[in-house]
Amino acid sequence: MTAPVHAPLPWQCNDWERLRARIVDQRLHHAVLLSGPAGIGKRLLGELLARSILCRNPDRGQACGVCRDCQLVTAGSHPDLLRIAPEEPGKQIRIEQIRGELSDFVMRTPSVAHAKAILIDPADAMNTHTANCLLKSLEEPAPRTHMLLLSDAPARLLPTIRSRCQQLRLMPPAPEQALQWLQSAGGGADAADLLGIAAGCPLGALRIRDADAIGGFDRAADMMRRAASPGAWIPELVSGCADLELRELLGWVFLFLADLSRALAHGSAAGARIRRAAAAIDELMPRVGAVHAARMLQRTLAARRDAASTANPNRQLLLEALLIDWQRGC
Ligand SMILES: [Zn+2]
Q1: Distance, CA 65 to ligand 1 centroid (Å)?
Q2: Residue 196 lies in a domain
Q3: pLDDT tier at 4 (50, 70, 90 boundaries)?
């Protein structure tokens, strides 16, 4: 089962109206690339587009939500909708999924609906061989078949794939709209901080709330605050966060440092985006120079890359080295 999607998110209404008009006028390109930052609702828009392509009774191009096609999509069993995704999050789409599954699907005629839709999510999770296989299907578009590619990182797609797609770059909502939406979606008292952490992307903010992950940011901020004291015993601070996954912890450290840099540039803790870190930032501002904060941002990014590229990184050593560097410059 997939959650039914019958309407666009409020900040995607204009993008949706443009797509809808193309469906009505039968001008929808055979390949559409929806790109934009993680957590702004690309998947929901892609889902709505796929449903609207298949729906037998659309309202000016938008899926009706009740017909047999719409019901089959909701049940996850529409034979004319193919979803291509990595078998596990973070893994690559396998070449067999494109060379076998996708190619076969493209070749056949629609069995229930009047058209077919393929959702590739995320489209950048393909190595060059797999992407070249997909390219063949894009170069020879099949009748009544639409490929919808979703990507947070379109620069990672082959330029030849991008150029064969109609590209729609989706933007995050204005801050007030994002906050209003998140509060109505149950963001609660933490809504503004959740949005700050998710770089203004409302669905990203909801994911952080649902994963109950905001406490991880608080602990990273506290670790950085305490590590800035000359007498702080770094190995103990690192051990104190032993239950947080390494890349996640480095992500929180990066966000905290980015907010500290913003506050330094602004000349006041009020410049920080994440209010819950204001006290720690206030305490650190007189002791941390903008150059040191900027250098530590780069250092944290590099550590995150190392953690991702090494099969078994030495967590304790990696974090201790980072925090000792931080402490020395404070
Ligand atoms: Zn329908």
Answers
A1: 5
A2: no
A3: low
